[in-house]
UniProtKB/TrEMBL annotation:
Pfam families: Fe-ADH_2. The keyword Oxidoreductase applies. The keyword Glycoprotein does not apply. GO terms for molecular function: metal ion binding; oxidoreductase activity, acting on CH-OH group of donors. This is Alcohol dehydrogenase iron-type/glycerol dehydrogenase GldA domain-containing protein. Keywords: Cytoplasm, Lipid biosynthesis, Lipid metabolism, Metal-binding, NAD, NADP, Oxidoreductase, Phospholipid biosynthesis, Phospholipid metabolism. The lineage of its organism: unclassified sequences, metagenomes, ecological metagenomes. InterPro entries: G1PDH, Glycerol_DH. One of its GO terms (biological process) is phospholipid biosynthetic process.
Length: 351
């Protein structure tokens, strides 16, 4: 009998801990990594937070370094980064920051076929480790295929100091996995879509590990570790599945709907958190447990807290199926309309 297996692409190393960035030299050497030249990406804030320190630590390793301040997360700026990579002959990109910096670095590195190391300064979404980059193209955000990071260094001391709103957004993004996997199961049953039990298990367990922490203090190092670990596991789950299915379903379509109709969308994690409440209700699931956890952790649970007019919430939920028509979810299954959307939003207390 033939022995069958599959190769799964996961990061070579994962370091999560207080002040672990100071161990950069040891982390690289213990994984037999050395680089000719590195590009360090940051924004105006994250250079002071961690970019400057990485620049110093890499310099001590005699690594040549190029620095780029990421002004925007667009296709055009990604091309600027790619050109700098080619001109300087770099063989690794360090992304130091939040989603904008990490997605730009991850995508540029993937296209140039060089390594990418993720150094998140806030835990606002699962882009920390996912093989997906959200890049603006022609004025619209697009989810583009990238490559999982070679490694991840998440310094909890730095992450604890990040804005509370960003931490709460990360909580919302991680909890949304519960909704996403239910949609994946639905698509498997009704559309014969391929379902991966390993990826689904990783994704759901990552969410439940956070959900089941009693009386959480979101600035506690144990909580932050669970949050970062969960976001990383979500990224790995996407890598195993070969798509964003383990972490993106109807709740993300709702968020994409808000992105499309609002002049200034709110944070992604905040939007998908509310999307998770509504879509869990539409499936007949225990949405109250999710609402309770989100309230305790300070994540927005209604339109007022999100800062979005009630009618825009209804409009976004009705528009949501158009954002990714190829992805079957509960919204397509029930053929969501304005009355259903309004009723669901009212009954869950979102509006």
């Amino acid at each position: 009998m033939a022995l069958l297996s599959r190769i799964i692409d996961i990061p070579l190393f994962l370091e999560i801990g207080e002040n672990c960035l100071e161990n950069l030299t040891l982390i690289l050497s213990s994984n037999s990594l050395s680089f000719r030249k590195a590009v360090v990406l940051f924004d105006r804030t994250t250079y002071q937070i961690a970019g400057k320190r990485i620049y110093y630590l890499l310099g001590r390793m005699k690594t040549c370094i190029d620095r780029i301040c990421v002004e925007e997360c667009t296709i055009e700026f990604t091309e600027i980064v790619r050109e700098r990579i080619r001109e300087s002959g770099c063989d690794v990109v360090f992304g130091v920051g939040g989603g904008k910096v990490l997605d730009t670095g991850k995508y540029a590195a993937a296209l140039e076929r060089i390594s990418f190391i993720s150094v998140p300064t806030c835990p606002s979404n699962d882009g920390i480790a996912s093989p997906v980059a959200v890049i603006e193209k022609n004025g619209r955000k697009k989810s583009l295929g990238a490559k999982m990071p070679l490694g991840i260094i998440a310094d909890l001391g730095i992450i604890k100091a990040s804005p509370l709103r960003n931490i709460r957004a990360g909580i919302g993004d991680l909890i949304s996995n519960l909704s996403a996997v239910e949609d994946w199961k639905l698509a498997s049953r009704k559309r014969a879509e391929k379902f991966d039990n390993f990826a689904a298990l990783l994704s759901v367990n990552a969410s439940e590990a956070l959900l089941n922490i009693g009386g959480p203090n979101i600035l506690d190092f144990n909580f932050l570790r669970k949050l970062v670990e969960g976001l990383v596991m979500g990224g790995v789950a996407m890598g195993i599945a070969g798509s964003s299915r383990p972490c993106s379903g109807a709740e993300h379509k709702f968020s994409h709907g808000l992105d499309a109709i609002l002049a200034g969308p709110t944070l992604h994690g905040e939007q998908v958190a509310i999307g998770t409440i509504v879509t869990t209700y539409l499936r007949g699931g225990d949405y109250k447990k999710i609402v309770s956890f989100l309230k305790v952790t300070g994540v927005p649970v209604n339109s007022r807290q999100l800062g979005v007019p009630e009618e825009k919430m209804v409009e976004a939920l009705v528009y949501a199926p158009k954002t990714r028509p190829e992805r079957f979810t509960i919204l397509e299954d029930i053929k969501i309309d304005e009355k259903m959307a309004r009723d669901a939003l009212i009954k869950t207390g979102v509006i």
